[in-house]
Design a protein that fits this description.
The chain is α/β, with parallel strands linked by helices and about 325 residues long. Helices cover about 40% and strands about 20% of the residues. The strands form four sheets. It has a seven-stranded parallel β-sheet with strand order 3-2-1-4-5-6-11, with helices on both faces. A two-stranded parallel sheet has the order 7-10. A two-stranded parallel sheet has the order 8-13.
């Protein structure tokens, strides 16, 4: 396969590039290397891929439609894995414009490129945040998702709807992946595990929202990448009267963990106790997430396996080595 991975310097992007390249595929990665979080960390990920056979990287912003179209025309991608986006629920409260550009305009540009130079399969990142105010647990892909509680969630739901429209109109075959709280080595510094680890090792308090009465379906990065790799050669099958199709999958462990238990697990891995600073619920947040992954398991014969205790341990080993602490 010749695969495009957008957001290649990101957390999931880096691991996806590495997996697919090592499987022998030609992988082109693009990323705008923005400063939402440490550019040095993004560059360090790319440095790890320098000697990976079959991988090429270009600095490119998906908002730059002419550059993106030229790349599609030149490479003729068989698969497109679209992971580039402005992430973060809390950041969207104060910086809405960047979400409109990256998550809406950027995604529309990717769809337009796929329309003119169709891949066999478009895989794109959505988010568990689209479930918003939905109180049905576990979250099922056929649940109503019309009450997003953050702008970030709204842009990801918009991505799903845009993809569905393009599949219907132009015959694309797409899979939207609702990721549930991804964690692991090379993770994002704005995520809880990274922030908690940094605080504990620095002797600083850990901010715990909603007074700890929260739970998340934490999903280890290797399970995410395994799912993507298995999905690549398996685009969804359209109905007999349709040219294309957009199918949604949850990718989560399917086993929510209480936030306070998660902190306990991290303390054990670090061998240090956290100073717990309990705070009220934040705007745009939800109390609990829980993925029903039956559709994913049925389609690719796999569902996430890694337990939090093991996954957190792997993250801590990477963190200590990378930051020499």
């Amino acid at each position: 396969m010749t695969v495009l991975v957008t957001g290649a310097a990101g957390f999931i992007g880096y691991h996806t590039v590495k997996r697919l390249s090592l499987e022998g595929h030609t992988v082109i990665g693009i990323d705008n290397l923005n400063d939402y979080y440490s550019v040095a960390l993004k560059q360090a990920r790319l440095n790890e891929l320098t000697d990976v056979k079959g991988f090429r990287f270009q600095t490119m912003d998906i908002v730059d439609k002419p550059a993106l179209m030229a790349l599609f025309e030149e490479e003729g991608f068989s698969e497109v894995i679209h992971l580039a986006a402005q992430a973060g629920v809390r950041y969207s409260l104060d910086n809405p414009d960047v979400y409109g550009q990256s998550n809406l305009v950027g995604f529309l540009n990717v769809l337009e490129a796929c329309r003119h130079y169709p891949p066999a399969h478009l895989i794109y990142a959505s988010s568990s945040s689209v479930y918003g105010a939905n109180s049905n647990l576990p979250y099922r892909v056929d649940d109503a998702v019309e009450l997003p509680v953050s702008l970030y969630a709204a842009t990801k739901r918009a991505n799903e709807l845009l993809a569905a429209s393009y599949c219907h109109l132009y015959g694309l075959k797409a899979s939207g992946l609702r990721f549930f709280t991804v964690y692991g080595p090379w993770g994002r510094p704005d995520m809880a595990l990274f922030k908690f680890t940094e605080a504990i090792l620095g002797g600083l308090p850990v901010d715990i929202y909603n007074h700890g009465q929260m739970a998340r379906d934490f999903t280890y990065i290797d399970d995410i990448v395994e799912s993507i790799a298995r999905l690549c050669p398996k685009p969804p099958l359209p109905a007999k009267d349709a040219a294309g199709v957009n199918r949604i999958f949850n990718i989560g462990r399917g086993s929510p963990v209480a936030l306070l238990n998660f902190v306990d697990c991290l303390e054990r891995a670090l061998g240090s106790k956290a100073q717990r600073n309990f705070l009220p619920m934040q705007a745009g947040d939800v109390v609990k997430t829980w993925a029903d992954v039956s559709a994913l398991a049925e389609w690719i014969g796999f569902s996430p396996q890694v337990e939090v205790e093991a996954g957190v341990g792997e993250f801590v080993r990477w963190y200590r080595q990378f930051y020499q602490v």
